[in-house]
Design goal:
Elements (H helix, E strand, L loop, with lengths): L2 E5 L2 E4 L4 E8 L7 E7 L5 E7 L6 E3 L7 E6 L4 E6 L8 E8 L15 E2 L3 E6 L1
Parallel strand pairs: 2-11
Antiparallel strand pairs: 1-3, 3-8, 4-5, 4-9, 5-6, 7-8, 9-10, 9-11
Length: 126
């Protein structure tokens, strides 16, 4: 079993920054594709960013490209999401997710991920 625990959310003014962390336990961390998703009230859970295992290849949804950076520290079993130039429309619950079967593939679909954290709230005020 794999456990994912997010942290780092909070309230920030537009233009500010936050760094989310996702701590992973339960199995060997380094062979997962890891992603961040977000869900705003009344909306579906949407893809934000993904990072693969071996090459560390990253991919972002268009709305965060150039503002957000996903990274991973295998030694600490942690994946990060650095969020800069935050906008009110970034307000959502942010979830990290792990895909364990194909660690070098990029997936953007919610249904492809095997494990999820409980989420952390990010609120951006205007």
């Amino acid at each position: 079993q794999v456990q994912l625990v997010e942290s780092g959310g909070g309230l920030v003014q537009a233009g500010g920054s936050l760094r989310l962390s996702c701590a992973i336990s339960g199995r060997t961390f380094s062979r997962y594709t890891m992603a961040w998703f977000r869900q705003a009230p009344g909306k579906e859970r949407d893809f934000v960013a993904v990072i693969t295992w071996s090459a560390g290849t990253t991919y972002y949804t268009n709305s965060v490209e150039g503002r957000f950076t996903i990274s991973r520290d295998n030694a600490k079993n942690t994946v990060y999401l650095q969020m800069n130039s935050l906008k009110p429309e970034d307000t959502a619950v942010y979830y990290c997710a792990a895909e364990v079967h194909n660690p070098d593939y990029i997936y953007v679909d919610v249904g492809k991920y095997d494990y999820w954290g409980q989420g952390t709230q990010v609120t951006v005020s205007s």
